[in-house]
Amino acid sequence: ICWSVTGGWHRPRVQPYGPIQLDPAAAVLHYGQEIFEGLKAYRHADGSIHSFRPEANGARLQRSARRLALPELPVEYFIESLKQMIAVDGAWVPSAPETSLYLRPFMFAKEAFLGVRPAHKVAYYLIASPAGAYFHGGIAPVSIWLSTNYARAGKGGTGAAKTGGNYASSLLPQSEAAEKGCQQVLFLRDGEYVEELGGMNVVLVYKDGTLVTPESDSILEGITRDSVLRLAEDRGHTVERRRVTIDEWREGAASGDIVESFACGTAAVITPIGQIVAEDFTIGSPDAEAGELTMSLRQELTDIQYGRLDDRHGWMLRLDA
Ligand code: PMP
Asked: InterPro entries attached here (predicted)?
């Protein structure tokens, strides 16, 4: 599906999937003026199709647009694009357990010029792809490489926006992680404060049941994280959004104060962290077991998403009606 904009949202149309034409001088190819979102459509047992908090993705796309000097797509149009996609391609939403249709809305600058300035002509597209479990090997705890040579974003940068440049800067550290035998990379800010993984937020669980997650203006505010923390609060857990140093994590894990940690995001849902591997130390162990709270929050969240549990927060939006 494609919505294109030149001075006003117009001409939305569904087109067959295929290559798109771009002028070689299109601003996105040179200055990276683009933003995107990621969410899923879930098939419930009765066959109906639902998405999870799509208004939050629409609002985040608007925040990303402001940071990248792109026009803000009204949230109603964003939701409408999801519904039109499902109207045409709903059959692609799989029904096997733990599967979904991953939806990738994105907007980019297509105006052709070479000076450095925000473009005025942009395009909005939505593509989709059926998705299974994110990590190979199911939901076994993952090993994470601590990147100390590279930052993903910094103060005043684009870290809080969902824009390709942040991912561009994480590609090399991600391949470094793979060389070290890890599936993911963890970024710090100022060489000290825990930020996030390449595509997921981080949550630590303390012995007293408190959940702690990094507060930072240079990470992506995950919708999964926000939701999981709400579920934990519903159960009576204390949630702290504050700065966390890697030393706090290291010492807390060594002393037994930090008993679980997990990563969360739309693609991976909730994934237990087995170990953090740094140049000169490790936290946890490769054969760590998945934490009990981690797995039960994962179960509760996916039960809501797949319609197996009452949607008490009003998070689900039906897309096929
Ligand atoms: N951080 C980064 C860098 C991400 O790419 C993602 C995935 N969108 C997240 C966090 C988690 O965000 P969400 O829960 O909204 O998918």
From this structure: Aminotrans_IV, Aminotransferase-like, B_amino_transII, BCAT-like_C, BCAT-like_N, BCAT_family
pLDDT in tens, 47-71: 999 999 999 999 999 999 999 999 9
According to DSSP, residue 111 is labeled: -
- Architecture of the structural domain at 142-290: Alpha-Beta Barrel (3.20)
HSE, side-chain direction, 13 A CA sphere, residue 184? 27
ipTM of the complex: 0.99
Positions of CATH 3.20.10.10 in the chain: 142-290
Architecture of domain 2-132: 2-Layer Sandwich (3.30)
How many angstroms separate the alpha carbon of residue 264 from the centre of ligand 1? 8
Q: Would you give the DSSP letter of residue 72?
A: P
pTM: 0.96
Chain position carrying tokens 């104060």: 257
Residue 10: band (very low, low, confident or very high) from pLDDT cuts 50, 70, 90: confident
Tokens of 255: 């002393």
Q: Does ligand 1 come within 6 angstroms of the Cβ of 160?
A: no
